[in-house]
Amino acid sequence: MDDEGRYRRGWERLEEMDPGAAPELTGRLKEIAPDFARYIIEFPFGTIYTRPGLDWKSRELAVVAALTALGNAVPQLKEHLHRALRAGWTRQELAEVIMQMSVYAGVPAALNAMAVAKEVFKEHNEPGKP
Questions:
Q1: Total domain count for the chain?
Q2: How far is Cα 16 from Cα 83, in angstroms, rounded to an integer?
Q3: Within this chain, do residues 108 and 72 fall inside the same structural domain, yes or no?
Q4: Among residues 43, 2, 3, 51, which one has the least CA distance to residue 25?
Q5: How many angstroms separate the CA atoms of 23 and 20, rounded?
Q6: φ and ψ at residue 124, rounded to 5 degrees
Q7: What is the structure's pLDDT at 4?
């Protein structure tokens, strides 16, 4: 598929997962790196997230685990925890995955991820939040 097709497919997938995220991403990077925004929409969302083999829900769980293990991607972890909840994972399941990562990434990384999860879970209790 050509770049334009990947971009369109990626835009649609990101909007399906997180309404408003694609225009927010392109707007945030427009002045400093518009090509980077295009790359993010084309590759992760237009190529990887649209592959057969794993559903969106499973992919989000993998992303939460990876971002927890990285330990230095708080804004991205927060976004993907929101998406994981929208995809159907429960708070308990997400907390279990974060605890599991303490074995492989260390307790500090897991504690930091739990703090992010606590914030995200609280936001989902606010009126108007999915």
A1: 2
A2: 10
A3: yes
A4: 43
A5: 6
A6: -75, -10
A7: 81
Which residues are CB-neighbours of 98 under 8 A, at least 6 positions away?
64, 68, 110, 113, 114, 117
Of 116, 109, 74, 76, nearest in space to 94 by CA? 116
Same domain, 62 and 44: no
Higher pLDDT, residue 126 or 10: 10
pTM: 0.87
User: Which residues span the domain enclosing 40?
Assistant: 3-48
DSSP result, 10-74: HHHHHHHHSTTHHHHHHHHHTTT-HHHHHHHIIIIIIIITT-TTS-HHHHHHHHHHHHHHH-S-H
**Residues 72 and 89 both lie in one domain:** yes
Residue 116 is encoded by which pair of tokens?
């992010």
